[in-house]
Specification:
- By secondary structure, this protein is α/β, with parallel strands linked by helices.
- The protein is 38% helix and 22% strand.
- Strand 10, helix 4 and strand 11 form a beta-alpha-beta unit.
């Protein structure tokens, strides 16, 4: 019965003169997963037909909701008939009609349409009108071109279309937090390039690639830099006290990620830091760690509750992968009670014992670059 899909967006509608750019990017992203004609209308996109992979729209960032719909001409009798067919397809005890009329030249206003169509449906189905808590809602949208009628709104992820906000580089650890941080930056319209620092284990490589593949649901394809970090750690272990190694590890990681950002034309780095969650994420330590970067550092999880982060991880299907065991570079050969109030001057003094440039150059030279598809 359905012959089109009505797609609604939210924040895009507030973008003023740039609205067309955001709408076009959303259309481009939809076309990457559904091959169909898309009609851009005021406040909505209308997809031709009833695609089999309609559920894939639930991963398109920028979409607030989408609805399989039937279309009809701007004629109240035809609107009544199509609404009745839709009501009979999935009958319920009570119903309500909800009309939005962007076409102000249509002869009837929204309340009149609600009443006329509601009376027609009630008379021919035996269903009762309930405006407060109906079991079923029938939605009618009157546009300049035609009318769309549907009875369900399937939620999308909201946010902005991937690609409207530029590129960022995300430090992907393999735990719960960094995939969620990456997703939240995608949701703000960023293309995300991933970098993972590893200790030569095939299992962690497989896990990281799977995590990126899951996140590709939202940005379709990704670039992943796999940086061998153990040789770098050996140099750090030789010169840096175990209480401060984690901080120096992470500062070197930030520098390497920064070089990757320069290469990729990225404007910022992304971390999964969550304030005071672990020793390296105290306010003092984060200040020292982030100061090693020349790029802006975004930490979208910084003030979130851990349970909220876990809920998002489960929702985007990264949680089960994230909790698989893996060797964390940052915790290798560090003190049982690491420094929690690092001072920048002290760390910089320690780093003078290292050839930082050589360590960064090694990481860039040895990085393996992978193209990951969903």
């Amino acid at each position: 019965m359905h012959d089109c899909v009505v797609v609604h967006y939210g924040e895009i509608g507030t973008k003023g003169k740039n609205r067309g750019f955001f709408e076009n990017k959303l259309m481009d992203n939809i076309k990457k997963i559904i091959d169909t004609k898309i009609d851009k209308q005021y406040g909505r996109l209308v997809l031709e037909g009833n695609p089999k992979n309609l559920a894939d729209l639930s991963g398109v960032l920028g979409i607030v909701s989408f609805s399989p719909a039937v279309r009809t001409e701007l004629d109240i009798e035809k609107i009544k008939d199509k609404a009745l067919l839709l009501a009979k397809e999935n009958p319920a005890g009570t119903f309500a009609i909800e009309t939005k009329r962007s076409n102000k030249n249509f002869t009837l206003d929204s309340k009149q349409i609600n009443r006329i169509v509601g009376e027609h449906v009630a008379k021919n189905t035996g269903m009762k009108v309930d405006l407060n808590s109906p079991v079923k809602k029938i939605f009618i949208e009157v546009s300049d071109k035609e009318c769309y009628i549907y009875d369900k709104k399937i939620p999308g992820p909201g946010g902005l279309p991937v690609g409207v906000s530029g590129t960022v580089v995300s430090l992907l650890s393999g735990g719960i937090d960094s995939p969620v941080a990456s997703y939240l930056m995608m949701k703000r319209g960023c293309n995300v390039v991933f970098v993972h620092f590893h200790n030569y284990t095939s299992k962690i490589e497989e896990k990281i690639e799977k995590l990126v593949a899951v996140l590709n649901k939202y940005q379709y394809k990704s670039k992943l830099y796999m940086v061998p970090f153990f040789p770098i750690q050996e140099k750090i272990i030789e010169k840096i006290p175990e209480t401060h190694r984690m901080i120096v590890y992470r500062r070197v990681m930030m520098r390497i990620a920064g070089k990757i950002a320069e290469k990729e034309g990225a404007k910022a780095l992304v971390t999964g830091d969550n304030l005071a969650q672990v020793a390296s994420q105290t306010l003092d330590n984060l200040d020292v760690i982030h100061s090693a970067s020349n790029e802006t550092v975004f930490s979208p999880l910084i003030g979130m509750d851990k349970n909220d982060i876990i809920d998002i991880a489960k929702n985007i299907a990264t949680y089960d992968l994230s909790i698989l065991p893996y060797p964390d570079c940052c915790t290798y050969m560090i003190a049982k009670h690491p420094e929690t109030r690092a001072k920048k001057e002290e760390i910089e003094s320690m780093e003078k014992e290292l050839d930082i440039k050589a360590l960064v150059d090694y990481g860039i030279e040895k990085a393996e670059v992978k193209e990951i598809s969903a």
